[in-house]
Amino acid sequence: MGMFSRLGDIINSNINAILDSAENPEKIARLMIQEMEDTLVEVRTAAARAMADKKEMEREIAHYTEVRNDWESKAGLAVDKGREDLARGALIAKQKAETEIERRREAMEVAEEAFAKRQDDLSRLQVKLDEAKAKHRALMMRREAAEQRIRVRSQTYDTRVDDALARYANVERKVDELEAYADTIRAAEPTLEAEFAALEQNDAIEAELEALKKSRTKPAAKPAKTEKKDA
What we know:
Oligomer: single chain
Low-confidence stretches: none
CATH topology of the largest domain: Helix Hairpins
Largest sheet: none
CATH architecture of the largest domain: Orthogonal Bundle
Distance between the termini: 171 Å
Number of domains: 2
Mean pLDDT: 79
Order of helices and strands: HHHHHH
Number of helices: 6
CATH class of the largest domain: Mainly Alpha
Radius of gyration: 61 Å
Number of strands: 0
């Protein structure tokens, strides 16, 4: 079953409202376009049929007009010849031709009205079809844009990015540790001023040590003098 049950449903439809309330607007738009195109073919076929009917009525009117004129001439000829009976028959045939002409004219009016109605339906249906196609294109563009944003965001926030950032943080920490270790080594190395200060300190210590040693050394006892005995 189609989305629209008749032509009037399509022409009077609010396409935006239908698509806004649909769960899958893009799919609904495709179905609407398909049904409108199918209906457009049917309306065109009906319009062509109405035009063909009109042309056929025109040909038949022209034919019966000739028949009527012919019987009218024959009725005149019969009167001229004093054949009222033939004239009467010719006039009857003429009336029949006129009746057929009148029927064809009525039928042609109906065909013309049908053709005009189909032309109007075609115009309004084409407007609706263009509207549905424009809406469908807009929906497709929105879907493609949304999918593109999803792809971009998926690439941006991919776990691989987080892993790479984590690895970078580890490398950065290693560098920090290496720099800290280098600073430690640099602090242990004596500076030039420190080396000179150490030399001066060593000299002072050596001098103090030497003085301490001297102060701690006891002078040697002098030997006792012996008296010389008289021989």
